[in-house]
Amino acid sequence: VGHAVLAINGAEVNGRFTADGKDVLEFLGNPANYPVSIRFGRHRLSSNEKLMLASMFHSSPEVGSSGIEMLETDTFKLHCFQTLTGIKFVVLADPRQAGIDALLRKIYEIYSDFALKNPFYSLEMPIRCELFDQNLKLALEVAEKAGPFGPGS
């Protein structure tokens, strides 16, 4: 889950080859390919990895406990907000990202307004509502613009 990613001209490198099958050494050896853009970054979590992390928060470790509220590593923080009705919202963020508590409350507000008040929504089913998607995207953009070390956390 925590390994680095190398990309050359936008193509992810895995060993000696790029994701589109080009040999990295041949690519770098050809002067026609210059200038070369090299980017290092963090590996993006797959959907399965996200589900696996989120499943840790599904059940409480003991009766009467609300479960884990935050899991912190050197590369990410996983935040969990549990409502009074037991619904849990999970956000995976950069460990320096501020304002996650406010973001979780905003996500709950969006969920309440656009899923729970929707007569066509069934609990524990995927939310298929354009207004929910739009408002969630806007809330995430606002949180992202606040950036690391913003007000609150």
Automatic annotation (TrEMBL):
Classification via SMART domains: Sybindin
InterPro entries the record matches: Longin-like_dom_sf, TRAPPC
Superkingdom, taxonomy of origin: Eukaryota
Pfam families, per the entry: Sybindin
Description of how the protein assembles with itself and partners: Part of the multisubunit transport protein particle (TRAPP) complex.
GO biological process: endoplasmic reticulum to Golgi vesicle-mediated transport
Job description of the protein: Core component of the TRAPP complexes which has a function of guanine nucleotide exchange factor activity for Rab1 GTPase. Plays a role in vesicular transport from endoplasmic reticulum to Golgi and autophagy. May play a role in dendrite postsynaptic membrane trafficking.
CDD domains: TRAPPC4_synbindin
Subcellular location: Endoplasmic reticulum; Golgi apparatus, cis-Golgi network; Golgi apparatus
Record GO cellular component, one term: endoplasmic reticulum
Descriptive protein name: Trafficking protein particle complex subunit
This protein's record includes keyword Oxidoreductase: no
Family per record: Belongs to the TRAPP small subunits family. TRAPPC4 subfamily.
Keywords: Endoplasmic reticulum, ER-Golgi transport, Golgi apparatus, Transport
Cited Gene3D superfamilies: 3.30.450.70
Principal subcellular localization: endoplasmic reticulum
